[in-house]
Amino acid sequence: MTDRSEIVARVTAVLEGEAKPVAIRGARKVDARGEQSGYWVVSDSRGVIVATGSAAADGTGEETFEHACRTVGIDPASRSGEVIDAGGRILTPGYVDIHAHGAWEKSFDDGPDGIDVARAGHAVHGTTRQVLSLITNPMDVICRNIRTVREKMATRPDILGCHLEGPFLALKRKGAHDPNCLKDPVPELVDRMLDASGADPAVGKIGCIRQITIAPELEHGIGAIKQFASAGVVPAVGHCDADYATAQAGFDAGAGIMTHMFNAMNGLHHREPGPIPAAVEDPRVTIELINDGFHVQNPMVKLGFGLAPHRIAFVTDAMAATDCPDGAYKLGELDVNVIDGHARLVSNGAIAGSTLTLEVAVQRAVNELGFSPVAAVESATLTPARAFGFDRANPVTGTPLGLIAPGYAADLNLLDPADWAAQHVWCAGRQVK
Question: Could you report the per-residue pLDDT of 335-369, keeping only the tens digit for each?
Fold first, then answer.
């Protein structure tokens, strides 16, 4: 782990440091607005894109690029590496993962150092922004972990807040969550979580909780969805056994996400439609999908992806074993065994998160499943950003995320055109790889 320790230290220092101007030319741009060759992008010392263009589309493109470079203090004729020649490599927005638990043997529940390690493990694979998912634990532990995320957000731009996957889950659909810690979301518990997050609904102050998964059929489920939504949190329907009408009621109450569609919920049935059709038919809902071929096998990935165009967000649900060898790991206090990259609880064999990265999810979509590059990239960038309003100016990220365009954050991935592997990565103008 020596090399990884050095990587973690470097990535952490970069993300806690200042942005620098970036200039890239000669790329094949792929984002939700389409593909373009001969593309260039320039960002400033705030980590914000100031100009983009295509030499192939505009005969004055080179002159415009050089002018943009000079406005941010970059000499376009410099040979010191200030201007990066992409050489036809793929340029995408940085990936945004709104549901992941860890990587590199660490979980986002493992305190500040654990967050540094796990974030580095995802950042070097092109995930420039991440909502840190916290596992079901005793309530005091959950609140402590919320406060830790809140503190880390103040020091670096890549952490978007936290996602509470529990404890308000259906016992029947708990997956790998500790059944002894599951609870009904009574108002007092919701208040404790919001207080730990720094939220103050009375004055419109939002805290660090971005998302919380709730089974809407719980006694106080619908009420909790309303309570969280009114505090600026985006509740998610998931880990549930809800019927169609109850899921509909959850979305009408303010839930804006479906947690990893198909997993930990009652499935599609022609006489018992369940929660999935309720999410699919509601244009307000962003639908998470784990594209690893294991949580959801390829035919169902293709089916699910086609159900709600522009609303499917690739997520990883990645646990501590991500980008690590097979072996024994932990998910919270529960023992997990990873065989052939697949994580299962030792106690009952339940799937215990994934070892996926968004880099691999996009690679699979394009190279294995035959999705259009634009659609695949959109599902890892603009769609997850839009779930929280991060596709426009907002109080959390300030600058919009999800596109390569003037005014957007300089979150950029340069990918190998052969296998779509991330070769260089920037978050808000900070180069992490």
Answer: 889 998 898 889 888 888 899 999 999 999 999 99
- Strand ranges across the sheet with 327-331: 327-331, 334-339, 342-345
Question: CATH for 95-387, among 3.20.20.140, 3.40.50.1980, 3.90.1200.10, 3.40.50.2000?
Answer: 3.20.20.140
- How do the domains of the chain map onto residue ranges? 4-91+402-431, 95-387
Binding residues for Zn(2+): 165, 239, 260
Per-residue model confidence (pLDDT) at position 3: 84
Known binding site for substrate: residues? Answer: 176, 263-264, 271, 295, 351-353
Classify 4-91+402-431 by CATH class. mainly beta
Distance CA 229, CA 69 (A): 43
- The model carries a pTM of 0.96
Residue 95 DSSP SS3: strand
Tens of pLDDT, residue by residue over 391-402, are: 999 999 999 999
DSSP class per residue in 286-311: EEEEE-SSSSS-HHHHHHHHHHSTT-
> Is the per-residue pLDDT at 429 higher than 50?
yes
In angstroms, what CA-CA distances link 101 with 94, 109, 314?
A: 19, 8, 15
How confident is the model at residue 1, as a pLDDT?
A: 46
- Residues at the binding site are 165, 176, 239, 260, 263-264, 271, 295, 351-353
Cα–Cα distance between 69 and 207 in angstroms, integer? 37
Q: Which residues contact 345 (CB under 8 A, 6 or more apart)?
A: 176, 331, 334, 335, 336, 337, 352
**pLDDT tens, position by position, 190-248:** 999 999 999 998 898 999 999 999 999 999 999 999 999 999 999 999 999 999 999 99
The residues that are catalytic are: 317
